[in-house]
# Entry
Amino acid sequence: MKRAYTDIPEGQMHYRIEGHGETIILLHMAVASSDEYTRVMHFLSKEYCVIALDFLGTGDSDPSPHVYQVLDHARTVISFMDSLGIKKANIVGQFNGAMIAAVVALNWPERVDKLVMAGTGFWEKTEAIALNEPTNFTTKVEIKPDGSHLQEWWRRACLWGDYPLEILEERLLEYVKAGPRGEEAHWAGAAYDLKPILPLISCPTLVLDATHYPFHYLAEAVKNLIPNGRLTTIENGPMYLDRAMPKEFAEAIISFLSSSVI
Amino acid sequence: MKRAYVDIPEGQMHYRIEGNGEPILLLHMAVASSDEFSRVMHFLSQKYRAIALDFLGAGDSDPAPYEYKVLDHARTVVSFMDSLDIKKTNIVGQLFGGHVAAEVAINWPERVDKLIMAGPGSFVGTEATTHNKPPDFITPIEIKADGSHLLEWWRRAGLWGDYSLDILEERVLEYVKAGLRGEEAHLAGTTYNLMPRLSLINCPTLVLDATNYLFHHQAKEVKRLISHSKLTTIENGPMYLDRAMPKEFAESVLNFLSSSAE
# Structure
């Protein structure tokens, strides 16, 4: 795997790239980075050219010039493809990355072969509040002289299941890289109304679900709203599915991409 | 300023680059990164091509294949120059980076125009090593399930004076990026015997000192041992001199480079 930068109008975007063949672009969740796909890329790169980017404001990409919404990030994906000369790609996104992938497929259908939406759901307004109240993982974190903001980021990294310390440390690094503006990505995701656009997605789409994804209960509904949708559910798959079960994650994608169009 | 990667035999090295003209290569202190020179590069790049690299195991470069000593890092600097086709350059190194810069100048004199060692000095022969007890800012760190290792990194980042929170946050990001193996650089630096090496440096050399550098008391002795050397001392300059007083740091470098050799 190699790491590299490419220029888009807003600045530099950082990405990871591995393998040869048809292109798969991987879009990460909120306050994360291309690093989340490192293990998955190992498997996908045996048959594909796999590229994972960092959205503006996360990982090692430049910050966005203002608070970006889902559509703004979708535009940067197109700029990214333009700068690398990629005309059309399969796109995989997890959580926030899945919403952005859906918006790319909706607005630039000529640029997307097949779409994989992992852990997709839609925040019903009341649900968002109810879910957020007890755990509070999206309020802005300010840097504190006593370093307690690091512990708050550590707490947020640990909220979503039991993982080895190595994975938690990777998550923490992503929080520190994104910094105080990191949560803008969560706000963009929470503010985006995904439900109405699902019936408009025309390309073959895999809804990749795991039984411990927060939106597991919506997976069937999401699949039914997408005209060319399929559903694969990974038993006991946790929130950080790509990091914790990379082989299963990659196999679900490969079997979908290699199957004939529905 | 742009960020980029280049290949050396051990893997990818990450660097920052800005400006045009004669090159100045900037080498960072232990458990830090090219980011420490971002502000300095702004000033240097008006007249020079300023390039700051991340040593293997630091910042966004690949890890070193094993525990690297000062001379190993010096070799990677030459590999880095080879891969960017830089035949000869001015080199600036701060603290640990100064040790590495000195070894490049000693072993590859044909590759170095002028040398600037900021804050040079050595623990060897001092209490820290004669009692065989490393100071408590270089002991190895383990990732703890409660996240307390983050507060230890924050403590280490804050040990060296009063800085703004954004500088401390930059430092802690460097600690998290370097991770568990980060302190290998401090160990390499503290066990490096600088003083006997100084008489082997033949190029024009600036000893850039600051009154609050850890090794301020050794600056005159370092200057005396290098044959073609000058000494500049910045009053009230703190340990993170490049981050806290970038203009003064850059002006000292520019004055020295534009002066005729002694």
Summary: Chain A has ten helices and eight strands. Chain A touches chain B at residues 2-5, 12, 14, 60, 143-145, 147, 150-151, 153-155, 158, 165-166, 168-169, 172-173, 176-177, 179 (CB under 8 Å). The two ends of chain A are 32 Å apart (CA to CA). The mean pLDDT of chain A is 94.
